[in-house]
Structure formats: structure tokens, C-alpha cells
Amino acid sequence: MTSETAGRDRQPAPAAPRRRADARRNEQALLAAAAAVFVTSGVQAPVRDIAARAGVGMGTIYRHFPTRADLIIAVYRHQVDACAQAGPELLAGRATPRAALAQWIGLFTDFLVTKYGLAAVLRPDNARFEALHAYFLDRLVPVCAQLLGAAARAGQIRADVDALVLLRAVGNLCAGAGASGESHDDARRMVGLLVAGLSLPGPEPGGLGPRGGRPGP
Length: 217
Prior knowledge:
Elements: H1 3-9, H2 16-41, H3 47-54, H4 58-64, H5 68-93, H6 97-113, H7 118-122, H8 126-153, H9 163-174, H10 184-196
């Protein structure tokens, strides 16, 4: 092998992996911006508001998400994943399993009350709506069950609570938030009462943490 050939063999690898990583970070930034706008303005918020929040042109958003439904679904899945990841992290980091459960239900409540209008946007595409709901259940029901099981084994909550039933109950309490002027704080207070009702007597700082039918969209 000549030195020239050896030099060619040592050429840097293509930059495609770096470009893919950059594109992924850009997409995550767009999803975070869209989620923040949806919290304050709902899922029907103008795309230009999302672009302004992300500091990009509207064309950049449309390149990543050709339709509003594409963007909404991506944001929703992104937030479902974040909620699912938070469960084990809270269980590992909170003082007690009951505190971890209460904190996670608080996060789940915040997630639900910012999704008003989602069903109306996706209803024309029922197959995508059903797939999104199935993804929601597949990711979040096991996490809720894990938290419930840990708190029950510790003797801190009732042992007969079903994860899906609990998520449905929380979803029903959150369903009106944003639809008729009901505040998000009202929904959080009601969910707080529901969670308090799961607890068995014993010294425990309860509540929903700092913030407070059919679950999901």
C-alpha cells in the first residue's frame, strides 16, 4: 500500500451521522416550542407562533411536519414518552412511592389539560387518532401500574386500584378544562382529591406536588 493510498484510507468518515444528530436536535427544539405554544393557545395555535417561539421560519416547520396533524401527533408522542420516562425516575428519586405516584399523576394531569382540542383536529383521520390513543395506553398504563404497585407494597395506598381505571378517572376530571372556561387549576385540585382518596392512613406529605371516560386525546 502506498503512502498516498494509506492517506486516502484514513480520510474522515462521512458527516451524515452528525447531520442526522443535528436534524434530530432541531426537531426536538421544534417539538418543545410547539408544546409550549399549545399550552397557552391550544392545538389550533397558528404555525407562525410556533415558528417564532422556535426562532425558525415557517418553512422549517413544514419541512419537518408537512401538516398540522403531523406536528400535533409528534408533540403528543414526544410528551407521552417524557411522561413515561418520568415514572421510574420519580420512583427512584422521591422519598416514598406514594409521593412518586402523586408527583407523576400531577405531571399526567398537566399533560392532559393542555390537550384540549386534540380530538377535534384528528377526528377526520380516525385511524391515526386510534393509533395515537393506543400508543398512549401502551406507554403510560404500565408506568402507572408500576407506581401503584410500589405504593401498595409499601402499605401507603389501597391495593385494589387498577391503573387504567385511575387514568380514565383523571382523564374525566380533566376533560372540561379549557372547554368551558374551567381553569386548569380546578382540574388539578379535583385530581388532587382523587389521589388523596387512594392513600391509607399514615404520615406522608401528600398532594400533587408543586403543580398540583377515557384518558388521553
